[in-house]
Amino acid sequence: EEEVAHGMKIYQYLMDLGADVEMRAIDAPETDFKSFEELFSKAVENEKELARVLNELANLALEEKDQMTYHFLKWFLDEQVEEIALTSSVLDKIRLVGDNGNGLFILNEELGKRKPEEDEN
Questions:
Q1: What local confidence, expressed as pLDDT, does residue 84 receive?
Q2: 99 DSSP assignment
Q3: What is the separation of C-alpha 118 from the centre of its chain, rounded to a whole number of angstroms?
Q4: Residue 58 CB neighbour total at 10 angstroms
Q5: How far apart are CA 12 and CA 67, in angstroms?
Q6: What CA–CA distance (Å, rounded) separates 11 from 24?
Q7: Angle between the N-to-C axes of helices 36-63 and 67-97, in degrees from 0 to 180, rounded to the nearest 10
Q8: What percent helix, strand, coil does the chain show, rounded to 5?
Q9: Which residue, 5, 28, 1, is CA-closest to 76?
Q10: Could you read off the pLDDT of 50-101 as tens digits, one per residue?
Q11: Residue 24: phi, psi to the nearest 5?
Q12: 77 vs 23: CA distance, rounded Å
């Protein structure tokens, strides 16, 4: 839900500026992982790649002297710091507990209590 909200935030920004927006299908994410560690290693890589792409967009906005878009993207850049920290933290905990079912259960309970951001503006 959180990622859909982020996508809709971008969509709405572009629509507010009168841009022509074409929604296209995206490839389904990889789902075949050998372990939780492999899964979260991939998640950390994905978050870092998204941060790289957002940085490129923000740099382009600054080059184009488009302060509105830079300001808009700043929120996403800040969010990426949080997402990289969160996924890296989960990966560290998974590495700590290994395949221990009790440890994974406790980690799952902890993550299940995480709430999406109330105010994403």
A1: 97
A2: T
A3: 16
A4: 19
A5: 17
A6: 12
A7: 160
A8: 70, 0, 30
A9: 5
A10: 999 999 999 999 999 999 999 999 999 999 999 999 999 999 999 999 888 8
A11: -120, 155
A12: 23
